[in-house]
Amino acid sequence: MLSQHFLDMTSKKSAIRELFDYGTKRAKEVGYENVFDYSLGNPSVPAPQEFSDAMIDLIKNTDPVALHGYSQSLGIPSVRQAVADSLRSRFGLNYTMDDIFMTVGAAGAIAHAARAVTVPGDEIITFAPFFPEYYYYINETGAVLKVVPADITSFQINFEAFEQMITPKTMAVLINTPNNPSGIVYSTATIDRLAAVLTEKSKEYGHDIYIISDEPYREIVFAGVDAPFVAAHYENTITCYSFSKSLSLPGERIGYIAVNPACKDAAKIVDMCGQISRGIGHNCPPSLIQLAVARVLDLTSDLSVYEANKTILYRELTRIGYEIVEPGGTFYMFPKALEDNAAAFCETAKKHDLLLVPSDSFGVPGHFRISYCVPTEKVERSIPVFEELAREYK
Q: How far apart are alpha carbons 146 and 149 in whole angstroms?
């Protein structure tokens, strides 16, 4: 008999992926250059040449039996040590290999972190707007995801609503900064206030409350933006990282968990992750990709195009009349729709071959997400289409 639970999920597919698939088909009909597809957060710049060189060197000069063999349960030790060394050098926290667990991207990291600090029935809180897949990452563990409504004036944390929602069942808070879909970066003041609330509530409830910090956009921060390293502000932080955006490697599915070494259970959590893998069939990312990434940990792709695209879109769309909280990073922005029904607005945009993601699945009504990891010339050519769309509502 088929699982009714997963059968039901087939009718709730990702709106982002379905829109991207539509855009691909539409481009075959009218030409790629005529479809302004802002649906999928797929990096538009290549990986650094150094990564490709590392791959070639490893394949040419490493014993293939060793290179393509299984890695250890927690990841290749030399890679874990290299990640720890990089974090320690960059952020001043005393990470060691024992604090690092290699994962299949940030999704794999979150899936492990949630299981490590909850049992079925526990609660994890996140803040709207949020990445829709969080529902599946968390609820499939048996824990329950609770969503704090957004402060749409700033997209910083709505602390009044948060403090009403936190309970003794709260075992972790899942944050994403820089944020998908808003592009907002939580300020130092926001992170410090969150840390203070969690410290107070941990004492009140008699158990630790963890921050699970989802950070795949950590390197895409725009000039002058306050972007604190979350773990430096709260001891019980589990950092979930992916190289998908910083190195433009989404298809390689490589990331890590880094548990703040000041967390008293850091080594236990990492060791537990190896056992969690046995239960969910994770069994480590590919050895070749781990070893290649270890050689380029402190490099990034040329990420400057994203700030250039943000500047054009923010300037021109606000000129046209769209209301936007200016992004501080990522390659997303989250304007208000020109009608209350975000899905209807995005359907209207679709008629102009302008593909925008409605906000409802991100936990906020009446907005839409623009994923501007596209060529800058295409961003510029899309502005008249946004103007034409706006005229329909005037």
A: 10
